[in-house]
What does this fold into?
Amino acid sequence: MNVVVIGCGVVGAAIAYELSQVNSLSVTVIDRHQPATASTGAALGVLMGIISHKIKGKAWRMRQKSIQSYETWIPELEALTGRSIPYNRQGILMLLSELEEISKWEQLVETRHSQGFPLEIWNSEQIKNICPQIDTEKNHTAIYSPSDRQVNPTALTLALVEAAQHRGVTFKFGVDVLSAELQNSSGSSAPKTQHCMETTEGTISADWFVIASGLGSSLLTAQLKQMVDIRPVLGQALHMRLEGSLGNLNFKPVITGDDVHIVPTGNGDYWVGATVEFPCNENDIPPNQELLESVRKKAITFCPDLAKATIIRTWTGLRPRPEGRPAPIIGKLPGFSNILLATGHYRNGVLLAPATADTIREMIISNI
It folds into this structure.
């Protein structure tokens, strides 16, 4: 059975990797760009699963599945490819504002313990002793989640691609879909299982198509007369460098608060971000430098020594946000039995990639 995955960000690459483990499938991935060069390449890779307030239903199950999957994925991918994937296993420390009700966090701690996941509430003395880089005069309370993680999204995606290639998946980059009006591969009017799409490399036939192309998904589904409205949201981030590392040399969690992340990447380097910027006119989103500066200043209120850091670079990325419906969109495209959507993950593409890939694989193999 032939499967074509359209899109090779972290979600498309994850799907390819999962499908590569099904012997009866022949998988091809196409993308107009190189892997991890769109939304994935701009992500910070902060995996906020256990520390999220999702405690039941699909939203929680996907987070739980993904966090657990990464623990086996990372060593497996490194062994298969020989690549090193930067993966921070030291958890996430979330600084709480004075306005937040501690009772809701106490309830979450109890829920997570019942689910088998540790979650801790730290007072200012604990913060000061364990993470001395944090200004405890302004940040009195924190939640520590030792089970959450951070991964380098680009390194992860490239490893997924290489591992999938080792298992027989074909990747075609620089290939664009010209027409998504599916035709019967036999050319007859009788309904057939297999269909084909026209691309810049000719006709591609498949029994299943998986649309995992983020913002490009809207154009493809519109051609199929089933418009899935996905809009861009811009994010800006900073790469900052200090002469030495912050705080305890043996404990380097991701520090987050008020939707700002400080991600240690080694040798005194930190990623800081990200802004959330919506279109002001159609899909045009010029980067707002004031918002980026506000993110930098917020990070400094958490860790004052960041004021001494040099900005090595700044970067931007567009996240795919579904309009008028929850993110992500996973399932069959209405009106089609063999076209699956795995798109519109907004700010959680890296976090939810394993669970998304698992869902797509189960949908396909249940029909083999």
DSSP finds nine helices and 20 strands in the chain. The longest strand covers residues 310-322. Confidence is low (pLDDT under 50) at residues 185-192. The domain at 1-90+148-229+323-368 is CATH 3.50.50.60 (FAD/NAD(P)-binding domain).
